[in-house]
Amino acid sequence: MSLQDEIKILRKFFPEPAVNSVLESLHQHQIQLRFSRSRSSKLGDFRPAAAGKPYRISLNHDLNPYEMLITWVHEIAHLHAFKKYGRRHQPHGNEWKQLFGELMKPYLALGIFPDDIKEELYQYLYKSGATNGSDLHLRRLLKNYNANATAMVHTVESLPLNALFRLPDGRVFQKLEQRRKRFKCLCMNDKRYYLFSPIAVVVPIDGQNSNQSVYLTKKNI
Ligand SMILES: [Zn+2]
Fold this sequence. Notes:
The chain is α+β, with helices and mostly antiparallel strands. The protein has 2 domains: 3-150; 153-207, SH3 type barrels, CATH 2.30.30. It is 38% helix and 21% strand. The chain has 7 helices and 10 strands. Helix 1 (3-13) crosses helix 2 (19-28), helix 3 packs across helix 4 and helix 5 (115-127) runs antiparallel to helix 6. Zinc ion is lined by residues 74, 78, 91-92.
């Protein structure tokens, strides 16, 4: 996979200003990154390098860009904790949390996060003591951005002809031709045609990412 391809993939999942830094860490630590199917039990995970295998990090493909970045830093903090302490540390204990805080600093400095998330991150990373459950509020806050995080915003006009997309209510549509200003779209659920404003916000259904895992590895660079 070429560097350009890697950047292209990362741009789909991460806030744009974070892409270079994520890529750097991937290469520096030779991490195999996988965008996995959605798992309700976890947002991501980290596996130490073992038996000739690289470090592996997986992230649920359907996290919004802010969640994706925070989960990425969460997992990479596990990697740093592992390198520094081996198995002699609590997975979400003080050693890990301190690294999480350190690693998040450059991203906070980039001004990526909206104010409410930034505030909550500061609370969580630098002010609260125990980690147990204290990120629940942060998680809820992040969920608010599922539909409107800037990197996730797709409008009907931005999709290619015949593209499939989903509305928040779950109905699936196919984008067809433009009629004056609006786009004619076929609802796959009731097989009827609807007219959409070009700036209607929708969730594209990307066959590549919806169910399959996307691997991003250092191979072939
Ligand atoms: Zn963890």
